[in-house]
Amino acid sequence: MKKITALLLALVMVCALAACGGNSAPAASEAPAAEGEAPAAETPAAAEVKVGFILLHDENSTYDKNFLEAAVASCEKLGVEYVVKSNIPEGQECYDAAAELVDAGCNIVFADSFGHESYMIQAAKEFPEVQFCHATGTKAHTENLANYHNAFASIYEGRFLAGVAAGMKLNEMIEAGEFTADEAKIGYVGAYPYAEVKSGYTSFFLGARSVCPTATMEVTFTNSWYDEALEKEGATRLINNGCKLISQHADSMGAPTACEDAGVPDVSYNGSTLAACPNTFIVSSRIDWSPYYEYMITCVQNGEAIDTDWCGTIETGSVVLTEVNTAAAAEGTQEAIDQVKAQLVAGELHVFDTATWTVNGETLTEYLADVDDMGDYQPETNVIADGYFHESEFRSAPYFDIDIDGITNIDA
Amino acid sequence: MRETVHNPLFHVVRRGVIPAWRAWLIRGGAILLSLVACGLVTTAVTGENPLAVYVTVFNGSFGTSRKFWTLLQNVAMLLCIALAVTPAFKMRFWNIGGEGQVLMGGLAAAACMICFRNSLPNGAIIALMVVSSILAGAVWGGIPGFFKAKWNTNETLFTLMMNYVATQLVAYFCVVWESPKGSGQIGVINQSTELGWLPVIGGQRYLLNVLVVLAVLAFVYIYLNYTKHGYEISVVGESERTARYVGIKVEKVIIRTMLLSGAICGLAGLLLVGSTNHTLTTTIAAGRGFTAVMVSWLAKFNPIWMVATSFLLVFLERGAGEISTNFGLNQSFSDILTGVILFFIIGSEFFINYRICFRRSTEREG
Predict the structure, then answer these.
(1) Count of alpha carbons within 13 Å of A86, Cβ hemisphere only?
(2) Which CATH number is correct for A44-154+291-298, 3.40.50.2300, 3.30.70.120, 3.10.129.10, 3.40.50.300?
(3) For residue range A123-136, what is the model confidence (pLDDT) as tens digits?
């Protein structure tokens, strides 16, 4: 009994210590909060900007990792303070997180996931003095809020370049006699049958077919942006179906690791998967968000308005490719990519050139897309002109949602 | 051969009933010990000052009035679902299908908001939402109850699998009602008209939820402790045979209790869709259907104590999020801390039921 009493006394003392420590609390909590702060700001204006980032997952998702790394780099480069809130679901939690970031003194709040949009708009209406920037959203250009902005990049151009690398790999394998030209089938693991995904895999496919004319593609959807098991399963299924090369638009390491296990080449997305897949990783396209982050921060520093709907390109440095893994890629891949990239930048080549794809055997001359997303599914804007589909020009978020010949949805 | 009698260093003895104050002393001690352990883990792994970490945890819930309201909202929703599963638990019916019952309630509410937005006035939509979501939850809880009563199916597996069915149903309707096309998301329902949005009272977005859950708390407390139904539930829970012997219709009690359990979960779904999120996703219950099991058990099925246990769990979770934001640590680190604390709390029950006797003699063996 004595021992128990002694133990309890000890506990009480620890408790008392903790309670005393509690008094000096605010000071203690300030210090770690400032961890994200860069060393002294260079200009007086810079000190006033504080950016809050809302992420759907954390760095375990290739998608969020891509945002996070750019955020840290940009804020440190410009010497502004930042706060990151990760694992914020696409619900009221997003509004709460945004409001808490405003309370914490942020004058820019950025969210990275499509489903955050409605809640960002809700917060933007409540805090008109704070700038709300949202990646991949569609509503800013119809919402007419001075402080709510969308941003995206012409990632279909990056996908096309990655497709060129894929086509060259297929050609190399055909030449090596691994399979015949007719068997050149690509497999693609998509998230949702949504315009962003369809635009991505179609441009990737067109890139591959521009190099390997006999290429075909099979697509499967996981109906989730992040589901490692399903993505792995999808990739394995495609490989068993006879796909010779895999690419994906889903955010986990599922598809790349399935490829590494099976020894099938993989064109990745959102960043390099070289470390985990040294034998099969070819190249990856991704959006570099740093140019946008730097743009929105300098806008606020200079008191200028941020574009309602900003679209980055290859030229702004927003659409980039990782280094080519020479161990897996075909010879001359980097040179071919550089050449096509120059053509894209010069405007000599258009990714969705209507001469390169058909729907039910016919070439499209006009197509109405649902650019103004009013929740009515009513397409209202003709986006085909001058012989190509004008992707990401009427709004930054992709709206190419056409099923073209040569691509088969194996779930349908 | 020489025989040695091995005298173990300690052995475990079952305690008799110990006074409540001592039980709570042990629990309180466990929480304090867990805080010390968390501090050690924090310093060892991250090199941060543990006191600063505790302060941050505290600020996660009480830092600003907005954070406090978010805390209240989360406590209310967790408590609501814990209150819902408790009548079933008292009956020794392991309803781990709270998640699915909440989802079905939410699905019914969202269906009313979407299907009648062009044909009915706001008041009628809300009335329909209330009725249909409570009904949907009750049906989802009632089905495993019925099967248990009629054919003695295993309720743990049954309710668990009903969760998956509910999740898939919601996923299906997310595609049916998706906006924009192909995204698999509903987005905020009726954002411009606010049709079917439950009213905001007193200018506080979450006040309505808190008040409704307080009413549910009072109802469940009285229902379990002061009504014939509540008495029947405890008799069935103690011994089905006794219940039959004294003339209680066990089947009826099982079905009735599961209907009630599901109905309250359905109400939680209504609040989540109609009042908090104004959308429907497969993750809208956010695992609360399972966390509620722990809330209920930790409080020994006592509705009043559940306020404390649900508060504790939400407080830890909110604090965990705050740690990951302020210290730039991964969310997983805060999950580790929550795990440590729960380990101590659950472990303390062992020391309430058992006593450890150490070897008295200190003789050394030759």
Answers:
(1) 25
(2) 3.40.50.2300
(3) 999 999 999 999 99
